[in-house]
Amino acid sequence: LIVVFVELPKSKEEEEVTPEPEEPSDDSSEEEAAGDTEMDFLRNLFSSTLGLGSADKVLDELTLDGVARYIKSGKCDYSSVTPSVSTAAGIPDFRSPGTGLYANLQKYNLPYPEAIFQIDYFKVRSSPCCFLFDFYQPTICHYFMKMLKDKGLLKRCYTQNIDTLERVAGLEGDDLIEAHGTFYTSHCVSFCCRKEYNLDWMKEKIFSDDIPRCDKCSSLVKPDIVFFGENLPVRFFTSMKMDFPRCDLLIVMGTSLQVQPFAGLVGRVSKSCPRLLINMEKAGQADPLFGLLGFGGGMDFDSDKAYRDVAHISTCDDGCLALADLLGWKVELEELVKQEHAQIDSQDKKEKAGGKSEAAKSSSASVAPEPKKEE
């Protein structure tokens, strides 16, 4: 899923007085999000019943062309992105029958497929969880996000992916909200230690079938992904409260919009905010009855009252190329993908020949010995 927000620039005075959000505790973050959803429900009910908060129509046409004209109008100066588009890179999704990750885990003799992401099972046998993505390349969608950043349009990237491909494409630090965590870093599970390890260290352990143990206290080392039963990162909840009310354009790609609380992000933008879905089918549509009452913030592509939601039915890569073309960026995007893929291929060849990139050496030297054999 990719969600792109575009935020109108604030005045200098507004930027100076904008308060930083208070960081909730890990135990309360999801409960607070549920409370916010209930408040949104009540606000929608009262505004609909009383005729308050009428929304302005921002797009001149509910098409991809209309979205492109809106972006080019200069009213969209900052964007935030949340992706789940890595199937185009060859990474399987979780639930597709026959081809999804859960359908191809027989070799690990799991008691049930979801055990791969359960912390109790990981403590017993860690390696099945750590299916790594180092042989995959970012897609056109990932580089489209990078292009938004390079053009000064990216406010934030909210992603459900755990495969680090956004980082490989060039997003970093403050650019990213990794809602379901990431394999990019790992930490010792001991509260008294919490030593951090990088991806190269974890790959060495997994490829050699070693259980990753902390070299400081010998406790288990766990990738920083969100396992079943764990809370989403606090930063996800605090950032969404700041980012979404200011959003000027929301782009959603490659998702069924069924998994909460992430799917609920589409309802957190203002009523005037245009929302573009690039997907193989329409998703996230509001229940007709709830739509009449103004509840929920679901997508409305086809009704007589539709005024801001656009569905572009295609693959995510094709949709990004089409939008880039309308924006005059297509050649630039294709060249960026070509250059970046060539660089990744060159690095892979060096590693397969027995070498490691200088970046990998410097990042792993402090925490990991040289691997006994190359994979």
TrEMBL record:
Cofactor or coenzyme needed: Zn(2+)
Biased composition (Basic and acidic residues): 340-359
Domain Deacetylase sirtuin-type: 57-330
Binding-site residues for Zn(2+), renumbered to this chain: 188, 193, 214, 217
Residues reported in the UniProt entry to bind NAD(+): 93-95, 160-163, 255-256, 279-281, 316
Keyword Phosphoprotein among UniProt keywords: no
Family classification: Belongs to the sirtuin family. Class I subfamily.
Protein name per its UniProtKB record: NAD-dependent protein deacetylase
Lineage, top ranks: Eukaryota, Metazoa, Chordata, Craniata, Vertebrata
